[in-house]
Amino acid sequence: VYILKSDNLSYVGMTNDFFRRFRQHNQEIKGGAKYTRSRQPFSVAYTEEVATRSEALKREHVIKKMTRSDKAALVRLT
Question: Is there a contact between 5 and 74 (Cβ–Cβ < 8 Å)?
């Protein structure tokens, strides 16, 4: 599970290969989310490793529902 930052925006996602996915978001290789294509470059603000895909989906959902200030606090903790 990860949070990417670009200017005043953030993007939350999950993957089993973070480095590949990060490169996709920054258009270094093909792929990436539509949201990130026009809002580059992104930097890594937060990463969290979980044991299963199910846990990752649940954690991603929790993070996406957080307020901007809660996400900022989470990033500051790391």
Answer: no
